[in-house]
Design a protein that fits this description.
The chain has 243 residues and is of the alpha/beta class. The chain has a single domain, classed as 3-Layer(aba) Sandwich (Rossmann fold), CATH 3.40.50.150. 45% of the residues lie in helices and 20% in strands. It has 10 helices and 7 strands. It has a 7-stranded mixed β-sheet with strand order 3-2-1-4-5-7-6, sandwiched between helices. Strand 4, helix 6 and strand 5 form a beta-alpha-beta unit. The protein is globular and about 45 Å long.
Amino acid sequence: MTPPAVETTPEADRIQALFNRIAPVYDRLNDWLSLGQHRIWKLMTVKWSQASAGDTCLDLCCGSGDLAQLLGERVGKTGQVFGVDFSCAQLEIARQRGETHYPPRTHIQWIEADALNLPFADNFFDAATMGYGLRNVTDILMSLQELHRVLKPGATAAILDFHRPSNPTLNGVQQWILQTIVVPVATANGLQDEYAYILPSLEKFPQGPEQIRLAHQAGFAQATHYPIAGGIMGVLVVTKRLS
């Protein structure tokens, strides 16, 4: 099955340009936004993906490549990892990071591609991860359908993202972090307008139950949503039907 052609849209172009602009400070701002906890959450995400030695894995919306690097450790030299993103600036940082790793991880490939139109055959991957990407695609259902297409029967994907917590206190904490830490750091780097997108993206991002419904609609046989840090974060774990 050939992936459907996806026409570029003004919204997709805007998001792509945004992530190219913020690439130089993306990792630093993730540290601030998560208070450094995103490293632990990414380890959890890789574990939930059930990737194992020798597997061929996908890190979708790979950004600067830290999840792909963790997958690379898990699959070992006999495995293969494809880090995919539509931001060429983010991919360049990922490549540079891979080159400075010793020994070099030659089993990780970096590919510029659209999450809605992946350049892979059906049933290609043993496992997949996605970090902070589902909230930013222009069509969440289509992204999940495309992810379902490229996974092998029985394969699992783990999708990590920021959420809007339902608890008023935690929601206030999240707002405080954004307003008093993230925005000033972004402003200092000349990126205030670019980071204004975070709050609107959180407001419109589907909560756990809706993500589960969309995953089933996309064809996944199993879908579970795990809230983390009181719902500030969440991981959607989805598994393709075995046959």
